[in-house]
Amino acid sequence: MNPVLSIIIPCYNSEATLEATLESVVAQNFQKWEAIIVNDGSTDTTEAIALSWVKKDDRFKYFTKSNEGLGKTRNFGIEKAQGTYILPLDSDNLLMADFAKEAITVFEANNNIGVVYGHAAYFGEKQGLWEVEPYDFKKILAANYIDACAIYKKQLWVEVGGYDENMPYQGHEDWDFWIALGVLNVQFHHLNKITFRYYVSKKSMIRSFTEAMQQANNDYIFKKYSEQCQKHYLDLFLLYKKTETHHAAQLKSEKFVIDLFCKTFFGFSIFGLYKTKKK
Fold this sequence. Notes:
- The structure is a single chain.
- By secondary structure, this protein is of the alpha/beta class.
- It has two domains: 203 residues, Spore Coat Polysaccharide Biosynthesis Protein SpsA, Chain A (Alpha-Beta Complex); 55 residues, no CATH class.
- Helix content is 45%, strand content 21%.
- It contains eleven helices and nine strands.
- The longest helix has 19 residues.
- It starts with a strand and ends with a helix.
């Protein structure tokens, strides 16, 4: 059976969570899949767990390599994928049973759709709903709000050259990828439902980011997409003002982000410009 969907599962010291993640793959109600497990230099029992699943179900494929980080590991797995569609799945997250089947139905009904994604439910050290908004290119330029756990056409990954492996610090490759697809005017389809469960832990990679690391990646993104940032800078500022009262803590960071790229590309603060225009 040729797989329709390739599920890419990067692993690094994932022994505590990998079993449940792979169980969620098998439990889904779409069966034309392959799951490519890529061990990114783990030093725990990740390999033994992965190989036990390979023995049980030949749709699981296992590869191991030296530690290179998330972006390179995803690209490594996708290069080996046989499916038409790609689903990146972190080794601590869980698929909802109907996600893949509904996404494939959407793709088959509308050939113009390039990406399908939905909401997430937190579990672990945080509970509740992560309600994700529909794709908006201007919003995604300002900050990422769509997790990597989405289904997209493999051809799109080829067209943008895969996940960017040159960012100062790995961890924001999915943000760059969604922007790159937006530049190509790829159509995103938002499923208004929970499509996966997102594991929250103090040990997660993104929580290890320092302010300096975040700033370095922000600067890299804004320079890479300077043309788009300059084109939409005023809309981004107005977006900030519109949502300020609802997301005060988050927008404190967004204000810095928007101000940063405006100073980088224009040599002045967008907020100072706005005050000037108001006079």
